[in-house]
């Protein structure tokens, strides 16, 4: 016999909380603490729970598939692969397919989208694929806020609080004695809301502390020589005593340059990754790293889209916040190591 589908009653019993609390936590409604919301969401993912009405609605929809668009310039980053597999896991729970859009919108004309809804991850300004999805009437959840002219047309938004995380890390660096941390960020070739939020947070932090900014911007596709030259320029500026890297894996890529310059990372020169690479950074205890948990972000994004397809797209677009986890290197602040950034409650985008 097939194993019965887990229910809200099963979740409530396993967690020792009421069915109403579980329902509110999963739907993003009601007065539920973020700690409880995360606990319930993780438990639901662990036992394979999915709302029956959402699954039935998607299975009986026009195409039985949801789409996924990732900017081509970042498709080689493991973050997006993990996100895609998380979204695929949620799609499987809903008994629908996940379609990755590989087309180049500049040459594919206005070919249709055989999906009932779509996820657009880190939309770039005036993203053609996003615009054409919306023009075709496809409900879209963006993972990150669209910075172009389509933000008011999307059906929902989910994102991590990148700016808050960046400010928190910079404050910990200050408390540890760093007086001019350098920031290595992404240039205009990949200027998503993530890139904007971390850059704006760094700029505001410099201004609030009265510090002359030490900022270097590179393409996320930068080669070894460009990374080496930019890192060298940053750390040789007067007073620079730490390096905070935005794009995934760039902290690990900076290590050979730092070593060649005679800089050993540690209390006297902290190194930070704002998007941790699971292979080269997450397991290095000397690198402070941010885990955005892309697998569960993919699951949460697909479930948000399923909720929207079930309930309709009328009214304000729902906004969901996704938690990040900061693992501080022990030489920085053991008391705050491995503590998550607390996401905000549901709200409309821009509030």
Description:
- It is a single chain.
- The chain is built from eleven helices and 13 strands.
- The protein has helices at residues 8-15, 19-27, 34-47, 52-59, 78-93, 128-135, 162-175, 193-209, 224-235, 250-260, 294-311; strands at 65-69, 97-100, 117-121, 140-143, 156-160, 181-186, 215-218, 242-245, 271-273, 287-291, 319-322, 324-327, 339-341.
- The strands form two sheets. It has a seven-stranded mixed sheet with strand order 7-6-8-9-10-12-13, sandwiched between helices. It has a six-stranded parallel sheet with strand order 2-1-3-4-5-11, sandwiched between helices.
- The termini are far apart.
- It is an alpha/beta fold.
- Helix 9 crosses helix 10 (250-260).
- Mean pLDDT is 87; it is low at 344-351.
- Helix content is 38%, strand content 16%.
Helix/sheet category: alpha/beta
**CA gyration radius, whole angstroms:** 21 Å
Order of strands in the sheet with the most strands?
7-6-8-9-10-12-13
**Low-pLDDT segments:** 344-351
The percent range for helix content is 25-40%
Determine the number of helices (DSSP H or I, runs of at least 4 residues): 11
Q: Which sheet architecture does the biggest sheet show?
A: 7 strands, mixed
Strand segment count:
13
Taken as a percent bin, the fraction of beta residues is: 15-25%
Order of helices and strands: HHHHEHEEHEEHEHEHEHEEHEEE
Q: Average pLDDT value? A: 87
Keywords:
38% helix, alpha/beta, six-stranded parallel β-sheet, 351 residues, disordered C terminus
Summarize the structure.
It contains 11 helices and 13 strands. Helices cover 38% and strands 16% of the residues.
């Amino acid at each position: 016999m097939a194993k019965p589908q887990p229910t809200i009653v099963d979740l409530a019993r396993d967690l020792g909380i009421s069915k109403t609390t579980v329902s509110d936590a999963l739907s993003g409604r009601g007065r539920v603490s973020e700690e409880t919301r995360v606990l319930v969401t993780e438990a639901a993912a662990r036992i394979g729970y999915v709302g029956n009405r959402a699954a039935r609605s998607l299975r009986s929809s026009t195409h039985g598939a949801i789409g996924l668009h990732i900017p081509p310039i970042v498709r080689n980053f493991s973050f997006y692969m993990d996100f895609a597999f998380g979204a695929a896991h949620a799609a499987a729970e809903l008994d629908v397919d996940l379609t990755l859009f590989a087309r180049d919108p500049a040459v594919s004309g206005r070919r249709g989208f055989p999906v009932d809804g779509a996820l657009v991850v880190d939309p770039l300004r005036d993203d053609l694929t996003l615009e054409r999805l919306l023009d075709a009437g496809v409900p879209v959840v963006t993972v990150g806020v669209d910075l172009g002219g389509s933000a008011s047309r999307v059906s929902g938004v989910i994102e991590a609080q990148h700016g808050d995380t960046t400010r928190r890390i910079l404050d910990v660096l200050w408390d540890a004695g760093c007086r001019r941390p350098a920031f290595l960020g992404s240039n205009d070739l990949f200027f998503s809301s993530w890139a904007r939020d971390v850059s704006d947070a760094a700029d505001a932090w410099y201004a609030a502390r009265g510090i002359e900014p030490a900022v270097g911007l590179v393409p996320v596709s930068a080669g070894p020589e460009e990374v080496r030259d930019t890192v060298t320029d940053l750390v040789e500026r007067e007073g620079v005593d730490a390096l905070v890297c935005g794009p995934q894996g760039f902290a690990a890529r900076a290590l050979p340059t730092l070593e060649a310059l005679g800089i050993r990372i540690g209390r006297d020169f902290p190194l930070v990754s704002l998007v941790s690479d699971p292979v080269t950074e997450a397991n290095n205890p000397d690198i402070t790293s941010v885990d955005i948990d892309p697998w569960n972000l993919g699951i949460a994004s697909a479930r948000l889209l399923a909720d929207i397809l079930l309930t309709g797209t009328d009214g304000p677009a729902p906004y969901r916040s996704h938690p990040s986890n900061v693992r501080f290197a022990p030489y920085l602040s053991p008391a705050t190591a491995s503590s998550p950034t607390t996401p905000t409650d549901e709200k409309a985008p821009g509030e």
